[in-house]
């Protein structure tokens, strides 16, 4: 669609088709809770200022709140304009423009757009604001999705295999990569800070939208529990995952232990001890002691072996809940050879 120089509000689908940088003018805490992936946060108000203005609107009146808002933004106008120029000058071409949203597509985004237009920047507002974007996000999980799950016991390199796939007819979604968590008590070790569940959903929805636009025929995900650390898989999507066929990866125990050592031995003893203690009640006193002793002695293989039995039993329990399974032994194979073997396998239909 063409980008006309207007301050009109665009519905989510049209707003998405524009190419301008996206600006989120909400407060830092609102942005942290969840935002349009790729958006730049240029808050009109700090968290405390937003709270004060909000109370004024509720307890006094709209005009009073507007005046308080102007008292904050007018002295900051020069700084805001400099930031706008920095962002728009990065874009090639003469037609400089910005996509802008706030919570409901109200005064914050309109005020910011007015300021940008004073220096010749074209502006496009999101109709209904971030609130409307969230409706779009949640709607993505309601669609019929051709899902196939990659399963297997811990240490079978399921995530590595997923990320190695580069096939036009397969769309891969790395849930653990999006959540920055591997799903176990050890899942956060060596990972970046987790996004909020809301932001996890936003990124996931964007990936599903990419699937709808490309030529892929299937979506491949790793079989996960409903929670990845503090991130929760949306119920609508998780229900579909529970009904999807599973491709179970099998590897020899020694190979699995080696893979786990490569991943987790890089972490500090304190982090590893804390992870063991978090599941000590489920491990039992003997296996907990064995694991902690092995970690202290840096006997990484023994530490992994002392906990594998617990994790394997958990996996086997969950696996009994489904019968739609293909199992394939990839012991000793590289990622390339593993993928070739999988693609030549006759898999259960979706």
From TrEMBL:
The Rhodanese domain, residue ranges: 22-142
Domain of life from the UniProt record: Bacteria
Species for this entry: Prochlorococcus marinus str. PAC1
Classification via Pfam families: AAA_SelU, Rhodanese
Keyword annotations of the record: Selenium
SUPFAM superfamilies: Rhodanese/Cell cycle control phosphatase
PROSITE patterns in the record: RHODANESE_3 (PS50206)
One BP annotation, GO: tRNA wobble uridine modification
Alphabetized GO MF terms: tRNA 2-selenouridine synthase activity
Entry protein name: Selenophosphate-dependent tRNA 2-selenouridine synthase
UniProt KW DNA-binding keyword: no
SMART domains documented for this protein: RHOD
């Amino acid at each position: 669609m063409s980008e006309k120089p207007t301050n009109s509000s665009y519905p989510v689908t049209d707003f998405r088709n524009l190419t301008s940088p996206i600006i989120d003018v909400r407060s830092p805490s609102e942005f942290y809770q969840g935002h349009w992936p790729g958006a730049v946060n240029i808050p009109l108000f700090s968290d405390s200022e937003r709270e004060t203005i909000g109370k004024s609107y509720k307890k006094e009146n709209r005009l009073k709140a507007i005046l308080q808002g102007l008292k904050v933004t007018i002295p900051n106008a020069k700084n805001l304009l400099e930031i706008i120029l920095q962002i728009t000058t990065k874009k090639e071409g003469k037609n400089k423009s910005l996509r802008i949203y706030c919570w409901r597509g109200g005064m914050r985004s309109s005020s910011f757009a007015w300021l940008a237009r004073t220096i010749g920047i074209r502006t496009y507002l999101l109709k209904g604001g971030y609130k409307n974007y969230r409706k779009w996000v949640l709607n993505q999980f309601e669609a019929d999705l051709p899902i196939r799950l990659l399963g297997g016991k811990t240490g079978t390199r399921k995530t590595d295999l997923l990320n190695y796939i580069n096939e036009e007819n397969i769309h891969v979604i790395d849930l653990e990569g999006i959540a920055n968590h591997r799903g176990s008590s050890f899942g956060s070790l060596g990972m970046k800070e987790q996004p909020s569940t809301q932001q996890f959903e936003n990124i996931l929805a964007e990936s599903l939208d990419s699937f709808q636009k490309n030529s892929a025929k299937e979506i491949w995900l790793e079989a996960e529990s409903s929670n990845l650390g503090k991130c929760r898989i949306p119920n609508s999507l998780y229900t579909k995952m529970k009904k999807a066929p599973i491709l179970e990866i099998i590897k020899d125990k020694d190979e699995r232990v080696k893979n786990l050592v490569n991943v987790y031995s890089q972490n500090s003893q304190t982090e590893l001890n804390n992870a063991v203690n978090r599941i000590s009640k489920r491990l039992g006193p003997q296996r907990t002691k064995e694991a902690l002793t092995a970690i202290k002695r840096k006997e990484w293989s023994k530490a992994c072996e002392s906990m594998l039995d617990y994790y394997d039993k958990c996996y086997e329990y969950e696996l009994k809940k489904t019968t739609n399974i293909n199992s394939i032994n990839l012991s000793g194979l590289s990622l390339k050879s593993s993928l070739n073997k999988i693609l030549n396998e006759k898999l259960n239909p979706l």
